[in-house]
Predict the structure.
Amino acid sequence: MTTPTLSKILPPPVRKIIGDLSDRERVLIGLDLLYEELSEEDFEEENN
């Protein structure tokens, strides 16, 4: 069994995203490549 993993090494700090990479915006935010705050709706969807 494998899990998708994406790593950003440069520029520091190192960032890793493990798991579902289908939501492009969330992945870019997680890698600090897109500077937008997630809306409350997105946070609630993730927790359901």
